[in-house]
Each structure stands twice: as structure tokens, then as C-alpha cells.
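Review form for a predicted model. The reviewer records the input and the model, then writes brief findings.
Reviewer: anonymous (R2)
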Amino acid sequence: MTIASVARVTGLPHETLRRHALKLQALGLVTREGHRCDLALENPALTKDWAVLRDQTGARCEQLVTKLGLAGIVVERDRAA
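Model under review:
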């Protein structure tokens, strides 16, 4: 994820998020590559929890989109487009 994308979604100032990302990086909780930040997946304590969260979030998002589609709120677009 990028700091800019988190700023857009949360409405928090970019500079505030950048400072927080630097603190998390100093603690070894995130890695930075260019403008992107990610969890430090080489840290075993984070990897397990992150994998569970990722899997649960993906499954729940799929369920939500399916229900929105069944209700006619979301129309599936052609994925090839």
C-alpha cells in the first residue's frame, strides 16, 4: 500500500501517515520499498496474524460483493475489459 492511498481512504494528512510509517519501519513492523509500505512478513509474529486477517478479509469481501450483486446494487463488470 502507499501512504497516498491510505491518506485518500482515511482522510488523514499524508505527512502524518508518513511519520507513522517511519516509526513502524524503525520498529521492524513494516518494510518500505520506494513509496510502498507493507508488513514485515519476515517477522514470524506478524506473518501468522496477517495471513489470517488477509484470508478472512478476502472471504468476507467476496461474500459482500456477491450479496450486493444479488440485491442489484452492484453489477459485475466484464473482468477482461
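Findings: The chain has a mean pLDDT of 78.
Further findings: Helices lie at 3-10, 14-26, 44-70.
Recommendation: see findings above.
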